[in-house]
Fold Bifunctional protein FolD.
Amino acid sequence: MKIIDGKELSAKIRQTIKQEVQEIKEHGNRSPLLSVILVGDNPASQSYVRGKENACLSVGMENRTIRLDANISQAELIQVVRQQNEDPDVDGILVQLPLPDHFETNPVLDQISPDKDVDGLHPVNAGLLLAGRDGLLPCTPNGVMEMLKSIGLEDLSGLNAVVVGRSNLVGKPLSLLLQQKNATVTMAHSRTKDLAQICSKADILIAAVGRPKMITSEYVKAGAVVIDVGINRMENGKLCGDVDFEDVKDKASAITPVPGGVGPMTVCMLLMNTLKAYKEHESYGR
C-alpha cells in the first residue's frame, strides 16, 4: 500500500512554480499577484487566508489580502471585486468562502472576471471544463488529478472511477476531469442506493461527501486507489477524512491521508492557476 503524500508532491510542484516566478523576475517583469478578499472574522477563514499568503510568499508571488467588515453590504463587496477586476496588476482573485450569512454567494462569485477566477468557480470556467476547453480549473479536482498522475495514473482508459459527492466545488468538475482521461465514471452521493456495492467496483474511489469516516473497507475493492477529499473535525479536535483510513489502508493499493493529502495540493493548484492567469494576461499585453 502506497500513501500518496500531498505535502511531498505539492512541495515538488511549488519548487517548479518558484523557479518559473524567479525567471519572470529576472527578465525584469512584475511578479504574479493573487488578491484574496476576506469578509468578517471567521477563524477558519482567517487561517486559510494566512495559508494562502504564506504559499504565495514561498514561491515569490505577490499577494494582497483585502479584509472587509462582516457588516458591509452585498453591493459594497461586489464593488471591491470589480475594483480588483480592473486592476491590471492583479492576476488572480479569490473570495474566501463561506461568506457571512446575509450575502448571496453566487452573485458575488459571478462578478469575478473569468480570466482572474483562480478558484475555477465562475460559470464561464465551469462551461469551458464541460466543453473540454482550456480554462482555469477548480483547485481541489485539479489537485486530485495531479495526485493520480504522480502514481502513474495519467491515462485512465479501462478504469472504473466512482466519485462520492456531487458538489460544484469537487464532485462535478472532478467527474469531468476523470472522463477527459478516459475513465468510466460513476457519480454517486449520500442518497445513492446500494452505495457500498457501487463503490466496491471502483478501480479509483474518490470520497468527497463530507461525512466523517463514511467509507469503510466494505466500500473498497481490493487494490483500488482511494482519494479522500473530505476534511472533518472529530469531537476530540483531530481531523479525519470521509474515509476510515485505518480500516481501508490495507485493502487499497494507494491512499491519501487526512491531513496531508489533498489539502496541500489544493493550495498548490491555486498558485498554479495564478501563474497561468498571469501568463495569459501578459501575453495579451496587460
